[in-house]
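User: Is it possible to get a 3D structure for a protein together with its bound compound? The compound here is zinc ion. I've pasted both below.
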Amino acid sequence: MTFFYRLAITISEVLSYKLKIFAITGDCPALKLVLKFTSHVGYYCCWLCYIRGRHVGGKRQYEFKLPMIMRDRDAYEEESRLAEQKQINVYGHLGLSVLSSVLDIPLPDAIIIDYLHVTLLGHAKALILNIFHSFAPNERLEVDNWFKMQIFPHYFNRKIKPISKFGFVKATEVKNILFYAALPVFQLYLSIEQLSHLALFICFTRLLHGQSIVGLETNKIAKELFEHFYRDHNEYYEGLQNLVLHLHVHFVYMYNNHGALTNIGCFGQEDLIGYIGSNHHGTRYYGELITYYYNIDFALHMKPTAATTKKIEKLDPVNDTHDEYKYLHVELCDCEQIHQCFRLYRRFIINDRIFHSLIYKKRGKSNSYFIQYSFDQRHYQFGSIQCFISLQSTEKSYALINVHRVQQKYSDYFKSTKYYDLLKKPLDNYFLFWKNALVKKQLY
Ligand SMILES: [Zn+2]
Ligand SMILES: [Zn+2]
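Assistant: Yes, that's possible. Here is the predicted structure of the complex:
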């Protein structure tokens, strides 16, 4: 490895590449091995700080404690060398890592904790199972039924998995429950205090691993959310304060150091490969999938596309005359030939993405008619597409949309809890209550 590292790769007389090794990521057992560290139940098993585990009820627990004493680069190197020479355990080090001579960023800063294993398949999965098993048997059946009824856009790829079948659950499935379904469903069964405590963890995770909604404050808010969650953990759960929970306390620091690269982990590879493997029907969106999964940089993802002209393919025209929509022609067009002019469609492909409407009956259980849209590119609203309309005379196309107007703030539900002030901003960005109305949106 060192050999390859020192060798520049020569492409031509004027061009040669040098390999830079930026960071290391992996699940906990893999990191423990490559970093030559004590196991996840050892006393000083955190790679980033000197937290000392405590033995509670037959389990090693890592309780929240401030200030955190961080491992710095020099101490890290010194302690690992000492462990190597004397063949002893020095604050968790069992020896010198093979990576220490090749990494361009010294340890421990080069360690990226893997979000897929630590959050989704780690603590989130454990929390969801723990809460689920605290319910009565009939409540568990109801919860699984709620999850079954939840629908998603057809490109979403996965349904919500029943918690009773969590044995082989995939990280994306845990993510869908955690991000979207857990709060609205668990709120029917959990005490408001425990629900608000869970909301701390959900908002923390969505802030760091979803689209940025609070801009530069992301780190500060995420840190506070998690510290409250960690500090009060014992009030709601027993024996779950393991290394995996503790590692979350370092996510904000990693986010500061590595930016959106923090998300790279093993998530991209595992999920993308899994998706391609099971993609029997083919997809047209590989480019989007790759950028989506790899999350290289959210800025790339969020950049508005230069092309403003929209490419529309009209699919599935409705042949019979739909009298109930005729008033729309009167509103939108001056011509007299409604029969030649006015066309209804069930589906449109807009800029290569397919959209269904509510009159498209073959949409099955997918939800590809629910959209976020804007008239001015500044204020966004949500709604479901009733149908698509095309006018021959004016050569214009429209979507008729059932608007879902925000009726009430979701955070109001948490007003009585001690976390209300912390939760208010992120919760209202992620969860909304609707009220319906009908509008027309011109597509081009
Ligand atoms: Zn630590
Ligand atoms: Zn007309």
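Residues 311 and 351 are 5 Å apart (CA to CA). The pocket of zinc ion (ligand 2) is lined by residues 329, 333, 335, 341, 391, 393 (CB under 6 Å).
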